[in-house]
Amino acid sequence: MTNKAVLAAACAAALLAFSPAAVYAQCGGASWYGPGFNGKRAASGEIFNENAMTAAHRSLPFGTKVAVTDQNTGKSVTVTINDRGPFHGKRIIDLSKGAAAALGFQNRGTTSVCLAEQ
User: Fold this and answer.
1) What GO molecular functions are on record for this protein (predicted)?
2) Can you give the CATH number for the domain in which 110 is found?
3) Cα gap 21→104, rounded to integer Å
4) How far is Cα 45 from Cα 47, in angstroms, rounded to an integer?
């Protein structure tokens, strides 16, 4: 098993331990967005605030709270799903600029994360 696979398995196990009632768990790529969308309506109808702890997901219901843990650093934030996406490659979540900054990957643009519904 590769180091990346071991890290992914450990992250998923930690997320499930962190949230025993988790109904949804997923690991994969994450990116962030904000500039150009700030102040516009998200798919939920809310006004998008790039500094809020929000995210876009392809299928989770709007209003769902999700713990997002960066697989590289172990940092975690809770975001609320209020938009749809990402629609690029195999990414599983698109975080607000504020959430990306809190996780520490804003300058890199993308990272690997695990999600667990709260």
Assistant:
1) lytic endotransglycosylase activity
2) 2.40.40.10
3) 27
4) 7
Residue at 16: amino acid letter: L
CA–CA gap between residue 24 and residue 41 (Å, rounded): 26
CB 54 within 8 A of CB 80: yes
CB 104 within 8 A of CB 70: yes
Q: Angle 52-57-63 (CA atoms, 0-180°, nearest 5)?
A: 60
Q: Using a cut of 0.70, tell me whether the model's pTM lies above it.
A: yes
Give dist(CA 95, CA 100) in Å, integer.
6
Walk along the chain (118 residues) and give the pLDDT tens digit of each residue: 555 554 455 455 554 555 455 568 999 999 999 889 999 999 999 999 999 999 999 999 999 999 999 999 999 999 999 999 999 889 999 999 999 999 999 999 999 999 999 9
The residue segments making up the domain with residue 7 are 3-117
68 vs 74: CA distance, rounded Å: 10
**Other Cβ atoms within 10 Å of 4 Cβ, number:** 10
